[in-house]
Amino acid sequence: MGRSTSEPVLTKNFKVLEKKEEYRLQYDLDVIKGAPNLFVLKVTNPLNTKVEVTTPTGQIYDFLLLKDGKKIWQWSDGRTFTQAQQKISFAPKETKIYYVQYETTDKGNYQLYGFFKGEGNKTVGPENFKME
After folding, report:
1. d(CA 112, CA 88)
2. Is the pLDDT of residue 22 over 60?
């Protein structure tokens, strides 16, 4: 690059900032068949830094069970939750586990969905399983 002898050269100083590590929680949904069945939603912070999320109410998670595509059960039905926001903190690399039990002996094809309310009602699933 050349320099002008008649006009001063304008220089700007700038700083390169580190990009803030964006959080993306990771989800895992499992069905442990038995009497009763155990439905498990695992939410993991994969980062080396603390992550905080906020739920709009006191409800943190939910489970929805379909049989052959039709709703047969939802964990939150009939439950009440505080209407205050709740802050949830995840330490670096922490996994939080939410689970419920559901008893069924009906044979058929099932689809389980999990919901985590801390990331705008994040839907996880379906986890397909068969009761024989």
Report:
1. 24
2. no
